[in-house]
Structures are given as C-alpha cells and as structure tokens.
Amino acid sequence: MKTYDDKTGTVTFTSALRFYHFGAAKSTGEIYNGVDIRGEVLLLSRNIKIMGTSEDDWGCQIITGDATEFDSKDKEIKRGGQMFMVNVEMERCSQKDNNAAIRFESVKTKPSIIKGSAFHGGLHWGMHIRKSDYIVLEDNIWFGFRPIGVNIDYGNFIRFSNNFVGMIVRRDKSSFKAHTTRDKEGAVIAC
Amino acid sequence: MSLDNEYEGGNKIISNLGTLKFYGKARKQKMSRLTAPAIKGSTTIKIEPGMDLVAGD
User: Fold this and answer.
1) Which of A18, A38, A55, A78 has the highest number of chain B CBs within 10 A, making it the mutation to test binding with B?
2) What ipTM, to 2 d.p.?
3) What residues does each domain of chain A span?
4) Contact B54/A18 with Cβ under 8 angstroms?
C-alpha cells in the first residue's frame, strides 16, 4: 500500500488491482436479508512476521504439543506445550498437501491463546487443532488456504470468536493422489 | 522430524513442547468495506474510514 487518507477512505497502491470487486456507499443488508456483499478489505500486516520460503512447497509451520520423556534414570518427564501468539503475521505458511500453518497436537495440560494475528497465503490448512484443549482463537484473520481454513478435530474448551476466515479454495488435485476420497473442504470444520 | 509414532512434524518447523510467546504491536481496526467498486487495473480504492492503515502495509 502506498498512501491512505482516513478522512476520505481513499487507498492507493503501488501496483494495479488484478480483479474487479463490488463496492457501494451503503450496506446491501436491506436488500439481501441482512448480508452485506460489498468487498471486504483486510489488514494483514503485523510488525512480527513469520515468513515461509518460496523455494519449494514446504512453507513453514508451528506445532505445539505435550510430550512425555524419560531421563537417564528412567524418570518420567512430562512436558506441556502452550503458545501465546498475539498480533503476529504469518505468510506463505503451512505445507502443501501435508501440514497446517499452526498445529496443536495432543495439548491437554496448559492453555494457549492466538489473538489479533493474520495468517495468509497458505499452501494447505490454516490451523489444525487435534486432540487438544483450552485454546482461545480470537480476532484473527485466516485468508487464502486450501481446502480447509480452520480444523478443530477432537478439541474441548476451544473458544473461536470474531475470526475472519476467507479465500478457502480447493487444492490442486493433480498434485494430491492419496486420500482424495476423504479430502474434506470447508472454511471451519469441527469434529 | 518425527515427534512420536502418532504424528510427524515434517520440515521447516518450529516445534514447541514448552511455552512459546510472540507479542506484536496491536493494530486497531483491521477490516473495512469498499464504498465504491474496485476496478481491475486501477491503483486506487475507496473504503469506509477508520481503518488502521499505514504506508507499506
């Protein structure tokens, strides 16, 4: 973005728009049963950036999990994973046909919070919560993933509020041979 | 990277088994609507005022 005038709402960009988007002075809610179909404009930038590389399709991911280990005396050591991610940007994240950008795997002991963050330009799912509890997802943007935005898979005490999930598209089937009969699609999926 | 027999990590990963914290600068209003059509090829759009935008976003 090049300039922004808050009084007039005029935004200028350094490069030209690639597509047409509908806009109007007033909400279309009155004529479409309360639905405002005007184009949405989202702020994806944050000052903390986690960027996947573009050299291949492995992007990047963050996984949080609980684990049990044993020391040299066979004493059990339990580790409880948790993450606090507030006002962070994650771009070109997740891994094509494999892993979500943010993963919680068997997290049962400590709470986690993801808030005010923006995840965009993904290669696979945006988020995968699996067998995990006590996670707050609030005021985040999940934009541009395939074919699932947020997948909550066997989770308890998950709070999902005021999140924007959009531009969730089908995967490129030609590159995904296995499990295609079970390939689920959706913005937000909960099991 | 393999975390256990049930699930694997893959590569290009931050694997967290402890406490991981990221705290960035809060941005106020992060969403708006187009108040006029955005035309293909144009470099300007009109949105509802109040969005927390700065040059370079």
Assistant:
1) A38
2) 0.89
3) 44-190
4) no
